[in-house]
Amino acid sequence: MARRKIGLVLSSGGARGSAHIGVLEVLLRNDLAPDVVAGASMGAHVGGAYAAGIDLDVLKDEWESTSFLRTAKALFPTIPWSGWSSGADLFRTLSRHFGDRRIEDLDVPFAAVATNLVTGAPEAITSGPLAEAVRASLSVPGLFTPVWIDDRLLIDGGVSNPLPVDVAAALGAEVIIAVDVLVEPSEVHLSGIPALGIRDRRLGITGAPAACDLANRRFHPSVLSVLFQMSTVFQKRLCNLTLAAHPPDVLLRPDFSSDPPCYSRVGGGIEAGARAAESALGEIRRVVRGAG
Question: Cα dihedral sign for 173, 177, 181, 184?
Answer without folding.
Answer: positive
